[in-house]
Amino acid sequence: MNKKHFYWLSLLLFAVTLGACSSNQTEASSSESSQQGTSNLREKPYREEQFLLGTYTRLSVYDEGKEAALAPAFARIKDLGDRITINEPDSEIDKINEKAGIEPVKVSSDIYYLVKTAKEYSVESKGAFNLVIGAITQLWRIGFDDARKPSQAEIDQALTKLDYNKVQLDDQNETVYLEEKGMIMDLGAIAKGYIADEVAKILREEGVTSGIIDLGGNILVIGHSFRGADQKWNIGIQDPNTARGTVIGSVQGADKTVVTSGVYERYLEVDGKKYHHIFDTKTGYPVDNDLASVSILTEDSIDGDALTTMLFAKGLEEGMRFVEEQTPKGTDAIFITHEGKVYITSGLEDNFKLDSESGYEMAK
Description:
By secondary structure, the protein is α+β, with helices and mostly antiparallel strands. The protein is built from nine helices and 21 strands. It has a domain at 4-63 and 211-362: Roll (T-fold), CATH 3.10.520.10.
């Protein structure tokens, strides 16, 4: 397949690629309305990259004189990442896991909100998204050097530790308690979405009106494109069959987030078979269906993060129906199958554009 590659300086973007929308805007771009509100925006942004959250995180600020906003934004990413991870000792989530079956653990308001939201999604999805999937993810360790395919006996044992109803929350004291020893909370499927939203808050508090947050798989755009107040960002949709940075098409958005989950991100190969990192909580194995990736376009990245995991597990038909019938207006999805077909929800019919050279085709 011929793929169209988008570049961020010399580096490929890790999830989607962003640019200014220009189709049917040639005349408008030079008009007074296009220039209104952009006099304080730079064509070349203040941009910084750091390796955090297990990936390259990139922040871009287009407001003139707002370079200083990058420092507190990156500090927020590091702080939250350190408190949420289960792969480093002494994080708040690690402390919850250590006290499983023993006693409740008081956590910060940030972490309590995240845990509570994760449980709500677990209940709503009936476990398709599961905040205590850790007993399975820690067995497989996909994405880490010690990744392996566990035995069936190990998987069967881990499956007994996935009951999200055994997560007790105390709103008044902001405590979290895992009722059964051996339960492991893992918020990897929702954490980056929450962090992206928090970074956006910091940047807006610092006076940023136009910017891009890229947390690798989670893209959030603040305001409109630097090219004009009437021009939205183009947000590229990742090709699930190639490395990050290769896109199959794009959607337009302002103050929106696009979150993508797919088989391309992390996987383990054993005896010629690939096992990806999105697990079926009923079998303890990676989800096995027709989907290669799911992308969500919505307002809050925390919702996009949880939904991509949930919808991937639900599969194409049930996932499409869920978005159309049970999500707020303005939330839409793009499903890409292993056969190279692209399905979109109704809200994207006049928005999503498929790259003619992508090698993919729109489903009928």
